[in-house]
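BUG: 3D viewer hangs when loading the predicted structure for this chain

Environment: internal workstation, default settings.
Expected: structure renders.
Actual: progress bar stalls at 90%.

Input used:
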Amino acid sequence: MTKAIYRPEYEVFLEHLKRLRIESGLTQAQCSEALGRPQSFMSDVERGVRRLDIVQLRDLCLVLGTDLTSFSKAYEQALDAK
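Structure tokens produced before the viewer hung:
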């Protein structure tokens, strides 16, 4: 099995995260600050350098004005659209 970071689904995941951040009106710095992390945290996440665990993803969703369930549904829709 190919590592997740090399799969097309992971690219869709990263695109979806970035789009959600931009639509929420937050910069990487603002988003990172809300999470109590340095600005480089969101940069690393969006570039695929840093992976998120489920707890971190939930925290990020809350900062972005959504919840984990809604994020997952929208991610599945984005996958279907590809």
